[in-house]
Design goal:
heterodimer, A: MetI-like fold, 12 helices, B: 256 residues, alpha/beta, 6-stranded mixed beta sheet, 10 strands, 25% strand
């Protein structure tokens, strides 16, 4: 340390001028996008001013909750929703697991099969449940079957992707040992990969079931049956006390399922 | 030329992971139909590659590996699987399927002989099941048949690995550093189990080993490798300080 060094302090500059310009450009761009979006969605101020009033009004109409409506209508609809979700999850697993094995590079060392499987995974996942539902409603008409199929097909991508990642993490040594024994490719999958990825399988199955219950509620809104349809009917008939009943039921069920899934995952997997 | 007792005959075996940089440089060896052959040598000298070329977990670049009338180096598909059934292998990390039971792991040794569907339903032959029980008893794990493999200690897992390999009724047993993950006492126990089982079933054994003393103690023949070449091939007694220096290089590590 001497005085001359103290006089000529090293200057530290966090960003180069080019970086500063780039940062400003990004910031400017963001502001422009928000401004443009606000202009496009045309907010009508009058509707905003009386929003609190509307909320209070709706709350009043939702109360008291029409509990009597639960057993005759909401409960059967809820059971149907759960059935749609269970069906969809099982179908999704049956279709998604084989595709998952085909997509895993270690279990299927054939690049074009990997490519096809990956395409199926991306395609099924990127088409939303609602689009699948439109497709199946056109084929089988509205109802629980179309709903279950729509959710099942949308599930393939998620299930297959998560599962193939699990397969790719399987212990290579164990597989090598089975290869050394003279096992066939099918035997490697059944006696090697499958036991190793069983925890992944259960975790994916539970997680997807949880998601599918919520999906089947939404699908009900467009006529696929279940509690969503009960909600839609109540809204159409302006029976707000019944709407609140359905919303409350959904809320309780979702929390319940979340708790069950978390507990099972914690204890079993 | 090979003698009639030759079980495995390797000729001019070369393996290059990177073209032009051979790990194995022209290896030629004959393994007889009995006894233990230990391969020693520094890390990275191709011991493991040599062992793995034999059952084709690694594909050799060129050369010939004659075993039971077939050139293993040229096989693929079903003939390769049929040849692999005849070669047992024991691994450093045991390589069991950890979430299966001990019994299932031992019976996996028969996978080459049953269909995938049969294996999936665990419908193995009674004779195979009897043999598996006998082997488990032999390696001292009679009461562990229904325990999951991941509940066992390292030494116990390696015993299961050996039982799985012997379950194949192989014509040759390969062992890739079978004791390197085990403590000294367990290492000796594992070597004894392997020696005894191989002798009882008249299976010749080829074993990669880091511990020279263990190799000298159990093998009838020592192959010293260095830089991808065989630099010593002979009786354990012949391994003197000069030869060890030739194999491992340097001499400071040799206690005088």
């Amino acid at each position: 340390m001497n005085t001359s060094a103290a006089a000529e302090l090293d200057r530290w500059i966090r960003f180069t001028p080019a970086q500063r310009l780039a940062r400003f450009a990004v910031f400017f761009g963001l502001v422009a996008v928000v401004a443009w979006a606000l202009k496009t969605i045309e907010i009508i101020p009058e509707f905003l001013y009386d929003a609190p009033e509307q909320v209070v009004d709706m709350g009043r109409r939702m109360w008291p909750v029409d509990w009597a409506h639960f057993w005759p209508v909401v409960w059967p609809a809820l059971v149907e929703t759960m059935h749609i979700a269970a069906m969809a999850t099982i179908l999704g697993l049956i279709m998604g697991i084989p595709v998952g094995f085909l997509a895993a590079k270690n279990a299927t060392p054939v690049w074009w099969l990997n490519a096809i499987a990956r395409f199926i995974l991306v395609a099924t996942r990127s088409i939303s449940t609602l689009i699948w539902a439109l497709f199946f409603v056109a084929m089988f008409g509205p109802g629980p079957l179309s709903g279950a199929l729509a959710i099942a097909f949308h599930s393939i991508g998620f299930i297959g992707k998560m599962f193939s990642e699990g397969v790719e993490e399987a212990n290579r040594g164990s597989i090598e040992a089975l290869q050394a024994v003279g096992a066939s490719r099918m035997q490697l999958i059944l006696m090697g990969y499958w036991p190793m990825v069983l925890p992944t399988f259960w975790s994916v199955a539970l997680f997807r079931w949880d998601i599918n219950v919520r999906e089947s509620v939404v699908l009900g809104l467009v006529g696929a049956g279940g509690i969503g349809m009960a909600l839609n009917a109540a809204i159409d008939l302006i029976q707000w006390d019944r709407v609140s009943l359905v919303l409350f039921t959904i809320f309780v069920v979702v929390i319940l399922i979340e708790t069950i899934v978390t507990q099972i995952r914690k204890r079993v997997i | 030329m090979s003698s009639p007792d030759t079980k495995l005959s390797i000729r001019h075996l070369v393996k290059e992971y990177v073209p032009g940089k051979p790990v194995l440089k022209d290896i030629s060896l004959d393994i007889e139909g009995r006894g233990i052959t230990a391969i020693i040598g520094p890390s990275g000298t191709g011991k493991s590659t040599l062992i793995r070329c034999i059952n084709r977990l690694i594909n050799p670049t060129s050369g010939e590996i004659m075993f039971e009338g077939r050139d293993l180096a040229k096989l693929s598909g079903t003939p390769l699987r049929e040849a692999r059934r005849r070669i047992g292998m024991v691994f450093q990390e045991y390589n069991l399927v950890e979430r299966l039971t001990v019994m299932e792991n031992v019976l996996s040794g028969r996978l080459g002989y049953v269909s995938a569907w049969t294996a999936w339903r665990r419908k193995f032959d009674d004779a195979d099941i009897q043999k598996a029980f006998a082997l488990l008893k032999r390696v001292g794990l009679a009461d562990f048949a229904n325990r999951r493999a991941d509940e066992l200690s390292g030494g116990q897992r390696q015993r299961v690995g050996i039982a799985r390999a012997v379950m194949q009724s192989p014509g040759l047993l390969l062992a890739d550093e079978p004791t390197s993950s085990l403590d000294p006492k367990t290492s000796v126990e594992i070597m004894e189990v392997m020696r005894d089982l191989a002798a009882e079933n008249s299976i010749p054994v080829m074993i990669n080993i880091h511990q020279v003393e263990l190799g000298k103690r159990y093998a009838q023949r020592i192959i010293g490798m260095s830089g991808g070449l065989v630099v010593y091939d002979g009786a354990p007694d012949g391994l003197d300080a000069d030869i060890l220096k030739k194999i491992y290089g340097g001499q400071d590590w040799l206690a005088t």
